[in-house]
Write a sequence for this structure.
């Protein structure tokens, strides 16, 4: 929430958090409803703000039930913004032990860390009353009134009275993090807590990401120790604790990669034993600079494309790819479709992989797509060794294929001292770099071609290796799918303006992306005429579509073969196709006639009874007598005329 020109606005995310559906917000913004006033955040154009007073009563109630009075919330927001999460306090409470080996519950750790963070803010702001006046324009008394209200509404584990809050803050200043620990967690055992506290302070100093040396740490620790009645230590003591507890502090001191590399147990893996057993995909900023002629920012020669690469983990063979200068979900789907077409070009059929590995980018939307292809394994957060594709991006083969003939190779890491290219020459040639468009596309396509076909030190390309292994793969390990299955997994549903389309006697005739199409059904069925269906299409091949209502109708439809109406246009085979169409019509008419004859045959023995049932209680006596008289006056010997289905038509 924030005020702009003295008008209160609610952020989009806060509206969603209040329980207002995101679809409602998008719809209101699209139709420019007068009840909704949307503006871009003047401090951040990526954020959308909505005027509070213009909202309906029900929406205001949702916001107030979540945040309280929004005007008070905005007034107190600057105070909340000054509270910074104390990671040292969190580490202390996470490492705290009582009753020999018991740890604090996670919620308790969070509660104590939150309280410590607020006390840190109170100490800082009350020590600088000038800053308080400048930042918040509040007196110290007014400030504490607002803080106590926030402690109540935010449910902070601190006293809600001014006197008790000051006492808690004073005790915190004197005793540190341990002062907040309840007696139930062993805080009454002062001697033990002091020992644990001193160790925690020392290890936190050693674990600092600036990686201070032992001498400096000893000096700084001794300042704290003397102020808190602890014994001073030497640099040698620091070294002993650093080496002894390295497994506990290396993650903070050197990073998670160092922790994983040295201490975390590694799972030794074996590559898949046959092609398409496991496929990986990931994004990669291609190390190539291109010129954007439309860029007026001064950096037009420094545009790097982003690619989604689909790779077979069997031998790092690139099955598919898609690239652009913006990463989106469509690019991911396009890369997998590209892979399917490439597999079919090599094998003659559609084949799916057994398992897919991908990162967590846009996972909420892409996970169903991944799972439709087979078993999907989402990458754990922060994982650096999930498969083989990241290693492939840094391989000699990858870099060699990219560097060849490229005066725009940016280097394998544009911030590294050893980036694999002479940066001075690279800068001198920036005016000669390829432009975005046909030139960039040609270079990128050549790069991926080399990845597949450039031979290794033994003279064999990755494509040759893959094809050889594929020829040796047993048929039962190949997941062959039909064209219909391909469309269900990779096709795009066409719902023009949210509506389905009806099957008629010409098939289906959708308008897709502004182009009118006509498709003949693979199986012509009179029962399907008039049914509402969805058309699923493949933008890479519009010669066929899948037609389905997701229940009883599901079949392929293809571009029609047009019949030659003029004799002069006739060619060999054209009459055969026309005859087949005419035969289908004749067969349909015959089927309808046969059904009609069968109905008459079934009811013939009961026709008088049926007539009586139809007329009982409905036909008046006079009309019935008139009909009987008319029937008796007709000649008895009149020959029976056989009804023809064509006469009926």
């Amino acid at each position: 929430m924030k005020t702009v020109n003295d008008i209160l606005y609610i952020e989009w995310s806060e509206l969603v958090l209040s329980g207002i559906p995101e679809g409602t917000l998008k719809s209101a913004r699209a139709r420019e409803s007068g009840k909704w006033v949307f503006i871009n955040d003047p401090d951040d154009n990526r954020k959308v703000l909505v005027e509070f007073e213009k909202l309906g009563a029900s929406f205001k109630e949702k916001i107030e039930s979540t945040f309280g009075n929004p005007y008070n919330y905005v007034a107190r927001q600057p105070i909340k913004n000054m509270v910074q999460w104390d990671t040292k306090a969190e580490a202390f409470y996470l490492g705290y032990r009582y009753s020999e080996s018991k740890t604090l519950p996670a919620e308790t750790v969070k509660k104590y860390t939150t309280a410590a963070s607020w006390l840190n803010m109170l100490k800082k702001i009350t020590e600088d009353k000038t800053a308080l006046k400048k930042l918040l324009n509040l007196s110290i008394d007014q400030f504490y009134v607002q803080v106590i209200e926030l402690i109540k509404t935010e449910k902070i584990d601190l006293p809600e009275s001014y006197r008790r809050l000051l006492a808690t803050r004073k005790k915190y200043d004197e005793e540190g993090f341990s002062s907040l620990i309840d007696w139930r967690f062993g805080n009454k055992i002062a001697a033990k807590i002091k020992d644990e506290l001193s160790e925690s302070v020392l290890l936190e100093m050693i674990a600092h990401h600036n990686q201070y040396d032992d001498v400096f740490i000893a000096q700084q620790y001794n300042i704290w120790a003397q102020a808190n009645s602890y014994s001073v230590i030497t640099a040698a003591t620091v070294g002993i604790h650093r080496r002894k507890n390295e497994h506990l502090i290396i993650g903070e001191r050197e990073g998670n990669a160092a922790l994983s590399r040295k201490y975390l147990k590694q799972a030794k893996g074996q590559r898949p034993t046959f092609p398409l057993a496991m496929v990986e995909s990931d994004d990669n900023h291609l190390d190539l600079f291109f010129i954007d002629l439309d860029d007026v920012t001064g950096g037009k020669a420094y545009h790097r494309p982003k690619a989604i690469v689909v790779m077979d983990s069997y031998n790092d063979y690139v099955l598919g790819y898609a690239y652009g200068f913006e990463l989106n979900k469509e690019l991911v789907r396009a890369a997998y479709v590209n892979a399917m077409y490439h597999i079919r070009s090599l094998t003659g059929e559609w084949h799916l992989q057994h398992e897919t590995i991908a990162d967590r980018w846009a996972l909420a939307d892409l996970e169903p797509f991944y799972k439709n292809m087979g078993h999907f394994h989402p990458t754990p957060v922060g994982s650096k060794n999930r498969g083989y594709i990241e290693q492939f991006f840094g391989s000699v083969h990858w870099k060699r294929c990219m560097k060849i003939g490229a005066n725009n190779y940016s280097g394998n890491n544009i911030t590294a001292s050893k980036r694999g290219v002479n940066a001075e020459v690279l800068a001198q040639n920036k005016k000669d770099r390829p432009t975005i468009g046909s030139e960039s596309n040609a270079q990128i396509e050549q790069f991926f071609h080399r990845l597949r076909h450039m031979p290794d030190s033994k003279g064999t390309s990755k494509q040759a290796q893959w094809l050889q292994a594929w020829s040796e793969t047993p048929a039962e390990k190949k997941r062959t799918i039909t064209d219909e299955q391909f469309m269900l997994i990779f096709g795009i549903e066409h719902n023009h303006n949210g509506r389905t389309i009806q099957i008629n006697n010409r098939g289906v005739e959708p308008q897709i992306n502004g182009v009118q199409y006509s498709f003949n059904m693979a199986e012509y069925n009179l029962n399907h005429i008039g049914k509402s269906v969805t058309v699923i299409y493949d933008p890479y091949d519009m010669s066929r579509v899948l037609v389905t209502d997701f229940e009883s109708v599901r079949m392929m439809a293809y571009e029609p073969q047009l019949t030659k109406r003029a004799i002069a246009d006739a060619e060999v085979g054209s009459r055969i196709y026309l005859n087949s169409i005419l035969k289908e019509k004749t067969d349909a008419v015959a089927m309808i006639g046969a059904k009609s004859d069968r109905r008459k045959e079934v009811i013939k023995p009961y026709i008088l009874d049926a007539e009586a049932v139809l007329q009982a209680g409905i036909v008046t006596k006079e009309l019935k007598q008139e009909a009987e008289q008319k029937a008796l006056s007709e000649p008895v010997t009149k020959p029976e005329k056989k009804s023809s289905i064509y006469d009926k038509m």
